[in-house]
UniProtKB/TrEMBL annotation:
Record-annotated Ketoreductase domain positions: 4-189
EC number: 1.-.-.-
Pfam families the UniProt entry points to: adh_short
Highest taxon above the source species: Bacteria
Any GO MF annotation of the entry: oxidoreductase activity
Record's keyword annotation contains Ribosomal protein: no
Protein family membership: Belongs to the short-chain dehydrogenases/reductases (SDR) family.
Keywords of the record: NADP, Oxidoreductase
Organism per entry: Nonomuraea harbinensis
Keyword tRNA-binding: no
EC supergroup of this enzyme: oxidoreductase
Name used for this protein in its record: SDR family NAD(P)-dependent oxidoreductase
Lineage, uppermost ranks: Bacteria, Bacillati, Actinomycetota, Actinomycetes, Streptosporangiales
Length: 245
């Protein structure tokens, strides 16, 4: 039996890299993707040092051809897929009345269309891997956001794209979980990464959720049996406004 294999998008930094490191340490071989080649190469070297076989595949999740090439590259390298982590995501803030539509389109392309396309392209491999491991199945983990579950002023387009991911995970479970393919949307409030730097003037990064917390949740999902379906995990910061990101 070959080692388990995982594909992680957005793995060059932040939450995606933290999850990829934990997967590598737990014995998974990896395909990792991001747009920036240098940062991705550096991440791949860190992951390989943890003992994993690592295939680094620069790809832009806004480009359908890149998404399909990524799926093929993973299948060619490993022939199985035990864990798919969708961490690549983009977010821009702006009120509904003035936020430009091209930003809406970009967020939906990267945050929703790419994950849907990736799952569609990888489904035969996901199903075959699940069938070979019926007790365990395979796991799809998508980084949604607290804003997908609870509204946040100024983040309507981002929140809508993340709500779509929650819905996608529920639908995937309705269609696929009986075959051992289960999906979870992790929905955190602000996590201390590059993406949340824009709110440092009002939220101290030390008070944000840690990438290690999100990675811990992701790893716990990978250890569940195929009998347990968790469609979403909502993670808030402490305090009186639990449903504000
Ligand atoms: N940080 C938060 O507060 C927070 C909270 C809730 C949910 N999330 C979600 O968690 C996920 C990870 O966020 P993060 O905080 O780790 O972000 P991050 O630190 O900005 O990292 C984003 C990763 O995605 C890659 N990426 C961005 N656009 C891409 C594209 N078009 N194609 C391929 N890769 C792309 C980036 O690499 P390149 O730039 O080189 O492509 C990087 O590896 C995102 O989906 C985000 O929406 C974040």
């Amino acid at each position: 039996m070959s080692r388990p294999a995982a594909l992680v998008t957005g793995a060059s930094r932040g939450i995606g890299l933290a999850i990829a490191e934990r997967l590598a340490a737990a014995g998974h071989d990896l395909t990792v993707c991001a747009r920036g080649g240098d940062a991705l190469s550096a991440a791949a070297a860190r992951l390989a040092a943890l003992g994993a076989a690592v295939r680094a595949e620069p790809a832009d999740m806004a480009a359908e051809d890149d998404v399909r090439r990524l799926a093929r590259a993973h299948e060619d390298a490993y022939g199985r897929l035990d864990v798919l982590v969708v961490a690549a995501g983009v977010g821009t803030a702006g009120p509904v009345d003035t936020a430009p539509l091209h930003r809406f389109d970009k967020q939906f392309a990267v945050n929703v269309r790419a994950p849907y396309t990736l799952v569609q392209a990888l489904l035969p491999t996901l199903r075959a891997t699940a069938a070979a491991r019926p007790d365990h199945g395979v796991k799809i983990i998508m980084l949604s956001s607290l804003t997908g579950a609870f509204p946040e002023p100024g983040l309507a387009a981002y929140g809508a794209s993340k709500a779509a991911l929650i819905s996608l995970c529920r639908s995937l479970n309705a269609e696929l979980s009986a075959d051992g393919v289960t999906a979870t949307a992790i929905c955190p409030g602000y996590v201390d990464t590059d993406m949340s730097a824009w709110v440092h003037d009002r939220i101290d990064p030390a008070d944000m959720i840690r990438t290690a917390d999100v990675a811990e949740l992701a790893m716990s999902l990978t250890r569940l049996s195929s009998r347990a379906v968790v469609s979403e995990l909502v993670v808030t910061r402490p305090g009186g406004q639990l449903h504000r990101a």
